[in-house]
Amino acid sequence: PRWQSWLVRMQSGFILISSFYLIVQMGVLGLLLLTYTVQISSFHEATETAISITKSSDLRQWSWQLLFLANLYWLDPVLEQFVPPEIVRWKEVVCYGGYLVLLVWFLRGISDVDNCLTRYGHFAWTHILIIFLTFQASLLLRTLQHGMMWYIFSVSIITINDIAAYMCGFFFGRTPLIVLSPKKTLEGYLGGGVFTVAIGPVFGLLLSRYEHLACPTAGFTVLSCTLEPFNLARGQIPPFLWHSLYISIFASTFGPTAGFLCSGFKRACKRKNFGNLIPGHGGVLDRCDCMFLMASFAYIYTANIAHPHS
């Protein structure tokens, strides 16, 4: 039933939001653990989906080895302090050598040319996942040095957009938006976009008023800083309010495209969802697909516009 699905989705959403709030209270450590947990869970779901089509279960361990190498190569600077200096020093050499071993492993596993296409499909899909999940997740972690609010806002605003688009589509949706995601409607896309752009600056302003969210970080520690003044009557507006507006515009326009991309793959595999861990939402990747695109945009924005000289 339509309304039952709506209620289940809302209940799960409330639990997810509450859990995220508790994770934020853990500080940088909590966000690091969350990022790696989401990345690994998403990789598992997407890899199992691919294996169900390619029937290349013997490449499962190979895929996880590649994921390990990718996480080592893009290891977060905060975690590097817990890795032996020799490994950090020779990280690129180790990863490249490991990749050559995996390449030989893959080629040696081909015993019949008739199944080459499916195995190469698995090979390509795993590399796509590494770029989409591991690389973009590593970029998001690099925004933490400028303050946790960049991370929090980026993943939250795309979630707000998704919820708003779902609500608008549920109540007002009539016009199909894209064939890759049959339930998405033009009304939901536009309504969600307008709501996101309207609420984004307000949410960004709220985050910027808390020192433990707005101040830069060093390792697991939040440094002390002076908050930007806010006085609307005097025209004193924190820069993050404007930053949050621009990020909200991206989230409401290009943000959903990551979801369409993943939906297309699921349709190609004759699957409705990547998993069933979250009632009403599907798997972890079903819930977080758009967040990975927001992750790379958040890094590009902070590194080139908000903090170009840091």
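the 2nd protein, sequnce then structure:
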Amino acid sequence: MITSTLSFLDLSKFERNTLAPDLGTSSSLRSPSIAPTSPFTAEVLAQQLVTVFRKQWLHLERQPRSSSSPGPALQEFFQSEAGMPAECSVSLAEEIKLRSRMRGTLIWAPPRFQIIFNIHPPQKRSVVVASQHYLCAGCGTEVEPKYIKKLRYCEYLGKYFCDCCHSDSESSIPGHIVMKWDFSKYPVCNFSKQLLDSIWHNPLFNVSCINKALYSKAKELDRFRELQEQLLSIKKLLATCRLSKSVLQEIEQLPEHLTHEQHLFSLEDLVNIKRGLLQTQARALLKLASAHVEICELCLAKGFICEFCKSKEVLFPFQRETCKRCEECKACFHKYCFKEEDCPKCIRIQTRRKLKDSFSLDVK
């Protein structure tokens, strides 16, 4: 019955119009509804076949049914299209996605795009392959137990792959970096290699959320954190100065996320921190910005004076080596002068608050 229906399709004409290369044939001789697509893939070919079949089916629906008409199964598949025009608002790709089942089987599914932060615990090859039901984790090819030694391990996904899905590529593993500060390259499958290359420049790793202890383990990272805190502080000051445009442009040479949010890094950033490149760049930018602040009257007017020693030296929060900032009132003082329990500004705030409370009681 399906064969009789397919006989209405001029498959030879479809093949000639869609698969043959354009050898100067007039556009009037080609099918107007199906434009040749290059390069051809299984998905493109399937879409073209469904398009032609649907148009032929709609044409048949308008004719009286005969004994060779398709059965209820095909009628159910196309019942929503029976009253629709050929050019539907919903694209064919979306329609196929809605009507098709998910890839894979009950015991296997292809790897999906995911960011893995943890390190896979070491396990025996036989145990891991058995948990994969003796299937390649990439393509689902069944592997006999006696051949499992030929499978290749992917350090990123923690699974075994056949040699078609694993070309012995190597890459740094995010989990090893953020957990152990280990930048060694490990074997990964083709899918993982492509995934890691695609996220190399993306700021996806918030160290304070994933592994805050990494700062104490990686001295390079901890030093950059201090420089970044100073840069973020001085950038806020420069943003209020109309004379600091050129300095701000220099600071923007750093990746944008490093000058907007702390603790957030890409894999490229972490590698550059390990090599010391970002520390050198941040230190040079901090020196340039500090030189501007020291001679800019607009910036100096926004600084602090140490209320303990009454020195005329202007202090700023980004001067971590000489300046101490009160956690309560955020005022700045010399490190060697500051006494947290005797902060002058905090005392003034408390006194003012008591006066306000006593005044409100008198009014009542």
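Residues 111 and 138 are 6 Å apart (CA to CA). The mean pLDDT is 79.
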